[in-house]
Design a protein that fits this description.
Helix content is 84%, strand content 0%. It is built from 5 helices and no strands. 35% of the residues are buried.
Length: 179
């Protein structure tokens, strides 16, 4: 459940990040798209600092579900607008989720498998997640080449993040796990 959830969410995240300048420059021009990338990075820092200070008070799967949903909504909003304020706001919201999703992966693996197994489980999980999510930018590019638009690709990736928000609830401590 962990691997599937993060594979789905990070595939779309990587695709958006790689195609962000190309996508946004159509609406904002090159300088505006570059500003949006800076907003995304800044929001990522703000998001990580904010969530890391309170994350231990919340259920990690619920927070991750919320982040996946927020990413899904941000990408969907970006796919269906050309309004400048929505584009900048969407990139900011996407940025808030970006770093936090990566942070939640290690927290959930640690919670489910403990420190003794952490390196093995994290390494194995990220091997599959990274291999799969590396395909996201190529898929987005292929769809863009076919349709001359990012709308279809971003809609698919938003749906994948939404599906990830459902599958993360199946991540549980293994029944035979001993710390």
């Amino acid at each position: 459940a962990i691997v599937i959830s993060f594979l789905l969410a990070l595939t779309g995240q990587n695709a958006y990040l790689i195609h962000q300048i190309s996508f946004l420059s159509e609406y904002l021009g090159a300088p505006g798209a570059a500003t949006a990338v800076s907003i995304t990075a800044g929001a990522s820092i703000i998001g990580r600092l904010s969530l890391s200070s309170v994350i231990d008070r919340f259920d990690k799967r619920t927070v991750t579900m919320f982040l996946f949903l927020l990413q899904s909504l941000a990408v969907l909003a970006l796919a269906y607008t050309d309004h400048i304020i929505v584009l900048y706001l969407g990139t900011f919201i996407f940025g808030l989720t970006m770093g936090n999703i990566l942070m939640m992966l290690s927290l959930i693996i640690g919670e489910c498998f403990g420190l003794i197994s952490f390196a093995t489980v994290y390494g194995t999980a990220t091997m599959f997640i990274s291999s799969g999510s590396a395909m996201g930018p190529a898929i987005a590019g292929f769809i863009f080449d076919l349709t001359e638009s990012y709308q279809t690709a971003f809609t698919i990736f938003a749906a994948m993040s939404f599906l990830a928000s459902i599958t993360i609830h199946f991540a549980r401590i293994p029944k035979n796990h001993q710390e």
